[in-house]
Every structure is written in C-alpha cells, then in structure tokens.
Amino acid sequence: MSAVEESWTRALERILELTVLLHQDAARGLARDGLTTSRATLLWKLREIGPAPQRRLAEELDVSPRNVTGLVDALEATGFVTREHDPADRRASLVTLTEHGASVVERLRRQRDELARDLFGAMPETRFDAFTAGLDDVLRRLHTLVAEEARAADGAAPS
Amino acid sequence: MSAVEESWTRALERILELTVLLHQDAARGLARDGLTTSRATLLWKLREIGPAPQRRLAEELDVSPRNVTGLVDALEATGFVTREHDPADRRASLVTLTEHGASVVERLRRQRDELARDLFGAMPETRFDAFTAGLDDVLRRLHTLVAEEARAADGAAPS
DNA sequence: GCAGGTTGGTGTAGCTTCTTCACGATGAGT
DNA sequence: ACTCATCGTGAAGAAGCTACACCAACCTGC
Lengths: 159, 159
Known about the structure:
Two copies of one chain form a homodimer.
Chain A: H1 3-32, H2 37-49, E1 52-53, H3 54-61, H4 65-77, E2 81-85, E3 93-97, H5 99-120, H6 125-156
Antiparallel strand pairs in A: 1-3, 2-3
Helix pairs in contact in A: 3-4
The structure holds a DNA duplex.
C-alpha cells in the first residue's frame, strides 16, 4: 500500500474515532436528562415535525412500528410525551411533546449549538471552509456508494 | 444566532449525518459476514493484540467482563475464535482467532482500505490535506472537551 | 504449607433496542 | 354491507449491555 493510500486509511480511521467520541459524548449527555439515544432521536423528530401518529414516526426513524410503540411507552412513562387522540382517525394516536419534553429538546438543541461553537469557533475561517468543503465531498461520495450498494443488493435479491 | 454560528451547526449536523451513514454501511457489510458491530470490534482488537484473556479484552473494549463472555460465546459458536488454555493461568482462557476468523478480519481490513480509497481517492490533494487538517483540529477539540467533562463529572461525584 | 485476599470467568437477573408474526379495531372503497 | 388496507399492540425472541454473586485458581505472608 502506497503512502498516499495509507494517508487515506488514516483519515478514515480518524473519522471513525470521531464517530465513536461523538456517540459516547451524546449518550452521556442524554443520560443526564434520563434519555437514551433512541428515545432522544424520537423526541428530536417530534420537535421537527410536530405531533405525529406512530406510523409516521416509524417511517421517519426507519424502524418498525412495533419499536415505536415501545419507545413511546417509555417516553410516556417518564413524562416526555403523551398519546393524544387523533380526531381524524380513531385508530391512530398523536404522539405529542409534553411541556417537559419540549423544554428538554430545546436544551438539547442549545447544547448541540454549543458543541458546534466549541468545535469550530476557534478555527480560522479559511480552514473551516476547507474542512466543510472536504466534508461535503466525503458525504457525497458516501451517499453515492450507499446508493450503489443498495442497487446491487436489490439486483441480487429483488424484493 | 448569527450566520457564522449557523454554519457551525450545519457543519456539525453534516458530521452527525456522516456518522450515521458510516455506521449503517459498516453494519450492513458486517452482516454479510455473519457479524455484528460488537463482535467485529472484538475480532478487530484480537487482530491487533493477538490471543488475549477475556479480561484484557474487556479493558481494551471498555465493556464489562461479563459482556465479553457473551461475545466470545457467540464468536466461538460461529467459528471465528476459540478459547485456548492459558498455560500460565489455569483460570484464564486465551481467546484466539481461528483461520476463518483471521481471514474474515483480513477481508474487513481490505474493505476499510477500499472505502478510504473510494472516499478520498478522487479528492484533489490540497483539499484532502485541508480536510484532514480540519479533522485533526476537531478531534483535538473534542478530546479536550471530553476530558474536561470527565474531570467535571469526577469533581461532582468522585468515585 | 496454608489461611486470606485477589483475580478470571460465568450463572442469574434485568434493561434497552430491535425484529417478525398475529390479531383486533378502525377506516375506506365498491 | 363487504372487503381490504392500515394503526397500534401482544407475544416471542435475538443481541448488547449492566450489576451482583459465586467458584476456582492464583498469590501473599506468616
């Protein structure tokens, strides 16, 4: 493997290290609010799209409807959300943030912005711009790779 | 929030998107080899440090010894590792890669290098260098933040 | 040489996330 | 009114993780 290739591998390794650190940091912060990653993800989505039936949440979060039932059960028991009646469909229940839930999500949002400031605030603007440009490149490449892989998987085992 | 601050938040969001994509991609690839993320992490560590007692693996992976027992059980049942007798300590068992396990880990290593090439190979060198420079900055910042947080937590609840 | 504390691994019990399958209740189209 | 699709949930189970209890084997110090 050439020196250039090794530098690519090292860069990927550092990205993976970053993902681990971010995940750990997030999980620890959420635990302080009595939340887990999955539950917080649901709350976050709720902040984004407003009260929603569980089916919608399952699609948005890309998990099974049954899983959403469990997450909402837990969030309801701990006072983050309530299940309201959907006036338009008696089968469905509108998952809704409580006041407490909304305030916690708002705090999470502030903490995210703080983290962004802590990470990038001290970086010279030109370096920041170069970094985000490279980041966009990587994201685009990754998106196309994932799409190609999905196509290949479909071709091998068409659903 | 100023425009600059918003750009920081957007950058962080894109990093988080990257972590999600990488994690999904990795999990899907591993599933094809009959592995999960946790089990693959153990195999990877084994490749790095060679045959090791479970206690050592628990420390290296930062999980409970009990958890390692379960992971090794599964990896042993699926033929990736064996538990060898430690000649120096009859309590301990040396977790050792089988031939199959070693070849799979080797393939994982190659796939990682391929991914790195796919992600960075088409990037102009100056952009790549600028990206990794920014990445290093972010990693350093994050490391110090995590360290500070750990210190604060220790101060609040000294173990 | 052996009592006493330490360490390595695992049984038990439990939580969380996630899945699939089955089923009841409701909604919607013919 | 009948049929079929849809919403949510019970049941069962895989996988990762934890803490606690316990045994066997190791290591000290007398």
